[in-house]
């Protein structure tokens, strides 16, 4: 029964089977298994975007006790307009000669723009004495893709924070006149790779 | 009729059996590989910790603000915290998260409050203490 012939042929078959197995494993890892699931590569990209977005908002929202954060200061002086990235700067979607330059755009320019990551900044706040939610875009660069990531940060505004004289078009309204609380703003950063 | 005895092709049959077992093992291995990457990726980042940290920070800031505007009145402090709790819970509800701030105590310079945070996977009770003298 023992046959010493064709040993090299056998080894060649084993090697070919091993190579085919490795190719199949590599192909499965890089592609989606079903339309509703993402591949391993997609999941890593989403995790990286989420970490990057959280770090950006955390850095902007840091403040020493008694001081307002950079993100809060940007919200306070926002004129309510929508801006879009034109390749070199954030310009007003309606009046292109107006630019947006603040702490948020500075860090977005240094991180997301340089890496080619598309992004939107959405500002949501309570309206109609807290019965509705008002949503506006500060930065809009298009509709996000299916693998977009959303990170958010809540900021509490108080009476006197919004300068109505210099920024009358700021869409964040006061929701309660009886206390010092002005409104609660949800700043959402949407990131996706094109 | 005699029993048919045939001792030929024994190795061929054995090889076929080994190949069948190998195919089964390969299928199981590919199935595990396909899903372990997804499981590891989903567990890689947990955004809840950022929400909790932000919640604690904004609550502490609001307690300091309520203390400044209270002017020594516990009723004013309570009113602002109640207002803050009601509106904050609405904002978190937009993300499917439940938030409730309760049990606040107005004893300057030390202010206390209890934050209840809940999602479909996490439920946390956090007690925060703010020293308004610094």
Explain what you see.
The complex is a heterodimer of chains A (194) and B (134). Chain A is an alpha+beta fold and 194 residues long. In chain A, 32% of the residues lie in helices and 25% in strands. In chain A, strands 4-3-6-5 form a four-stranded antiparallel sheet. In chain A, strands 1-2 form a two-stranded antiparallel ribbon. The model of chain A has no long low-confidence stretch (mean pLDDT 86). By secondary structure, chain B is α+β, with helices and mostly antiparallel strands. Chain B is 57% helix and 21% strand. Chain B has three helices and three strands. The termini of chain B are far apart. The interface between A and B is large, with 41 and 41 residues.
Identify the overall geometry of chain B.
rod-shaped
**Residue share in helices of chain A?**
25-40%
Uncertain segments of chain A of ≥5 residues (pLDDT<50)?
Answer: none
Range of strand content of chain A: 15-25%
Q: Walk across the major sheet of chain A and give the strand order.
A: 4-3-6-5
The chain-level mean pLDDT of chain A equals 86
Quickly count the helices of chain B.
Answer: 3
* First and last CA, distance of chain B: 105 Å
Q: Low-confidence parts of chain B lasting 5 or more residues at pLDDT below 50?
A: none
Radius of gyration of chain A, rounded? Answer: 26 Å
Q: What profile does the largest beta sheet of chain B have? A: 3 strands, antiparallel
Oligomer: heterodimer
Q: Numbering strands along the chain, what is their spatial order in the largest sheet of chain B?
A: 1-2-3
Order of helices and strands of chain A: HHHEEHEEEE
Bin the helical content of chain B: 55-70%
Binned strand content of chain B:
15-25%
Number of strands of chain A: 6
- Specify the structural class of chain A: alpha+beta
Q: How many distinct beta strands of chain B?
A: 3
**Biggest beta sheet summary of chain A:** 4 strands, antiparallel
